[in-house]
Design goal:
The chain is of the alpha+beta class and 179 residues long. Helix content is 25%, strand content 37%. The strands form two sheets. A five-stranded antiparallel β-sheet has the order 5-4-3-6-9, with helices on both faces.
């Protein structure tokens, strides 16, 4: 038995619900099954399904990091390489990059298909006019919040990504709080 996991920074409320609604408005079929997030480790299969080594690794990584401010502002796209529109990480980029590098090591080491670029997907693999509309609708999006840690997600047989465990940073209170 294997399990498919991912590691991400969740987007707190009220912005999480707002971005999910925009993804649904874009016609993205993953709007309800993928919570709004900044990916640290993309979908990764864990052979055997035992997450104990992964969880211990994530606990150690979280203990070495501190809370930081994440600023999401405006939109970007990966077109023409991939049909993705996203909300831009305007501040907190270096922290996300360092965290991603640390998390994607040990039992979670893997090659990436593209260089790491922190972002929040709001439309994926939908027709161009829907990508354009999502890009325009969220051009003025603006959110700032304190990142308190990250979450281990598991992909269910029903296609939904569900949080399994939070990993708070050293000195952080568990749970997101606006900056």
């Amino acid at each position: 038995m294997s399990r498919t996991i991912g590691v991400a920074i969740g987007i707190p409320e009220p912005w999480g619900s707002e971005l999910r609604q925009h993804r649904a408005l874009a016609g993205d079929p993953q709007a309800q099954s993928v919570p709004p997030h900044v990916t640290l480790v993309p979908p990764t299969e864990i052979p055997g399904g035992d997450l104990s080594d992964v969880e211990e690794h994530l606990r150690k990584i979280a203990a070495r990091h501190s809370p930081f401010e994440l600023h999401l502002r405006g939109t970007g796209t990966f077109r023409p390489v991939t049909d993705v529109v996203f909300v831009v990480v305007a501040a907190g980029i270096a922290e996300c990059e360092q965290l991603e590098s640390d998390v994607r090591s040990g039992p979670l080491i893997r090659e990436l298909h593209f260089p790491y670029h922190p972002h929040v997907t709001v439309a994926h693999d939908v027709p161009d006019r829907q990508l354009d509309a999502a890009y325009d609708r969220l051009a003025d999006f603006n959110a700032r919040f304190r990142v308190w840690g990250f979450t281990l997600f598991e992909h269910g047989a029903d296609g939904y990504w569900r949080p399994q465990r939070d990993f708070p940073f050293a000195g952080a209170e568990v749970g997101p709080a606006p900056a």
